[in-house]
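User: Can you recover a sequence for this backbone? Please restate the input before giving your answer.

Assistant: Of course. Working from this structure:
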């Protein structure tokens, strides 16, 4: 078996064993793209009949870890909308890029069309208050990163991580692109802006490998300049009622 068929066989066996009444199933993530390793888990979307409890569940089947996304035809659009609001598109990308394992009634096909339409429309933009707060927060991280001694490695590394995450969030939003967390942060960041994304990631590497905050500070400043520049004095955030 090749890198794609072996996980698919395991995923089908999982569905048949644990959810024989499922309306459909698909395999997502790295396994569906042929990039899974022996230690990779299986991301499996399982469509259950309406009325059953949807949930996210992690199990081990036949020695392999599997993360299950259990939806029904009725509640799947709610998960799509929540995903869209978070601007990450995790579930949407599962439906879009996943390998269909079983879809006897066409439910998955219809949901995939819906997911693809939402992905094509892009995530919602940041509202003005979110955007200004992002500028202010990123400016704070930039100032602290610049001011922190390379000898304070724990503080420097923590600041570099937060600066990269906030810069990635703002940069992807600026381009109307989807963002991500974990391993998907660099992938989505580079897809949204290959040049500035690479500058941010290489800047983070310079902090980690050489305790040099200069490249990341410069990359963050360039992102801020795209958004109107650093924001310090004059920023106001009303307290929520």
């Amino acid at each position: 078996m090749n890198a794609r068929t072996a996980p698919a066989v395991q995923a089908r066996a999982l569905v048949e064993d644990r959810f024989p009444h499922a309306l459909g199933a698909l395999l997502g993530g790295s396994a569906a793209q042929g990039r899974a390793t022996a230690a990779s888990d299986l991301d499996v979307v399982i469509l259950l009949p309406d009325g059953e409890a949807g949930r996210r569940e992690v199990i081990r089947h036949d020695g392999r870890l599997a993360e299950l996304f259990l939806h029904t035809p009725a509640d799947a659009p709610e998960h799509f909308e929540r995903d869209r609001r978070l601007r990450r598109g995790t579930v949407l990308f599962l439906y879009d890029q996943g390998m269909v394992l079983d879809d006897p009634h066409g439910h998955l096909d219809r949901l995939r069309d819906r997911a693809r339409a939402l992905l094509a429309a892009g995530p919602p933009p940041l509202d003005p208050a979110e955007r200004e707060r992002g500028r202010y927060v990123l400016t704070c991280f930039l100032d602290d990163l610049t001011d922190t001694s390379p000898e304070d490695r724990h503080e420097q590394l923590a600041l570099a991580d937060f600066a990269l995450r906030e810069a990635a969030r703002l940069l992807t939003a600026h381009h109307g692109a989807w963002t991500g967390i974990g391993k998907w942060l660099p992938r989505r960041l580079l897809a949204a802006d290959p040049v500035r994304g690479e500058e941010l990631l290489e800047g983070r590497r310079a902090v980690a490998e050489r305790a040099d905050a200069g490249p990341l500070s410069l990359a963050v400043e360039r992102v801020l300049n795209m958004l109107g520049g650093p924001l310090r004095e004059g920023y106001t955030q009303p307290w929520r009622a």
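That completes the design. The chain is about 55% helix and 10% strand.
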